[in-house]
Specification:
Layout lengths: L3 E8 L3 H9 L1 H8 L1 E3 L8 E6 L8 E10 L3 E6 L16 E10 L2 E9 L9 H25 L2
Antiparallel strand pairs: 1-7, 2-3, 3-4, 4-5, 5-6, 6-7
Length: about 150
């Protein structure tokens, strides 16, 4: 089984602009479609209400792992945790990493989510499949967000 998701997108904006869209909790929430309750702090949990149509009944939760300015932003979370009656807290989380690299025309944003092989067998393949498609959408969302907001 594939154990991780890797995607990349080139965004025609400086690294500093893409970094702000990733790490300012209000901007992150705008393109990721979650109303995040406060600033991201390494080592601390982040919470919010999902605003994506059809998933508004769900809460978003992640633990911020690393914030290396204009280089790396990462968090752990429980992927595709969509059953509000299920307690996912005992499952191992996956690690989501955003890495930024300057290019002549802007920023190359690398996304990697790893750890699907540690999820329960009944959830791992579906979480991987759903997040693979979800990240394709989210990378387009951040590119559109950066293009339309200065």
């Amino acid at each position: 089984m594939q154990n991780d998701i890797e995607k990349r997108i080139e965004i025609k904006a400086p690294v500093s602009r893409v970094w702000r869209a990733l790490t300012d909790y209000r901007e992150f929430g705008a393109w990721f479609r979650v109303k995040v309750e406060g600033p991201f702090v390494a080592g601390q949990p982040a919470f919010g209400q999902i605003t994506y149509p059809g998933y508004e009944h769900l809460r978003w939760q992640a633990v911020i792992q690393k914030i290396e300015p204009e280089k790396l932003f990462s968090f752990t979370w429980h992927p595709y945790a969509i059953d509000p009656k299920k307690d996912y807290s005992q499952e191992p989380p996956t690690l989501v990493e955003f890495r930024l690299e300057p290019t002549p025309s802007g920023t190359l944003l690398h996304l990697r989510e790893s750890g699907f092989d540690r999820l329960p067998a009944d959830r791992g393949p579906e979480a991987l499949r759903m997040n693979d498609g979800g990240w394709s959408t989210q990378l387009q969302n951040i590119a559109n967000h950066v293009a339309t907001r200065s």
